[in-house]
Amino acid sequence: MTVLKLPKWNMAIGDGEPLFCIAGLNVLEDRDLAFETARHLKAVLGELQLPFVFKASFDKANRSSIKSYRGPGLKKGLELLAEVKEKFSVPICTDIHEIEQAEPIAAVADLVQIPAFLCRQTDLVVATARATQKAGGLLHVKKGQFLAPWDCRNILSKIAEAATPNMTILCERGASFGYNNLIVDMLAFDEMKKLGAPVTIDATHAVQLPGADPRTGGASTGGRREGVPIIAKAAVAAGADGVFLEFHPDPDKALCDPLSCLPLDGAAKLFASLKAIHAAVN
Questions:
Q1: What global pTM score does this model have?
Q2: Is 63 part of a structural domain of the chain?
Q3: Are 118 and 94 in contact (CB under 8 A)?
């Protein structure tokens, strides 16, 4: 059985554990929005008795256009995430982009996320693994859109050699399928779990249409918001140990990937469905 724990928060992910929920904002916009989202999601997931990790990025470094909104940056972003962590007593997940960010991020984030496009960057993976292990956190590594599920073996091998073999959650987020499109292979979850790591589904980014936002003529990523619940439910039915979902009180006004995030007021209904599916499967 593969189970990873966050002892400080009395949370675990893997075989026999409750559905692990990583949820929040795509990117930090302002303090009020972060507080509103964290408050609402904590209430929803607390009622459902599901583990909750609040996620928000301080920087979206991989953007289609240089004009795209990226976030408040490392210093201000981590300060706000630390404030959310203390005020709402929730663990934090955020992305890393550069080696020098490893230690300051690991000091705040309980779950340090390596973006899909960076999952094979050896120096970054090693530095992040070491800093995260030292801080007592876990890694959440997104499988690149260009990788087969079994290719994640090499990612796990790097982390095991650099730090420890028992600190990594793998994340499926779709695979490139021709131009401007992604698909999720439901057989991937079992293949990735065979490698000895819990697996989540990033249903939000799995519905993206890279470089295909009709509103900007390809200067940003498109999306199919209505597909997020479908992929999330299918993935949990296929054996995913957790879900990664992004919300916004007014998705169409979100400053980043508005076509992929879900309305915050729909969180309760969706998570209740996902919990029921997870219970039935397990």
A1: 0.94
A2: yes
A3: no
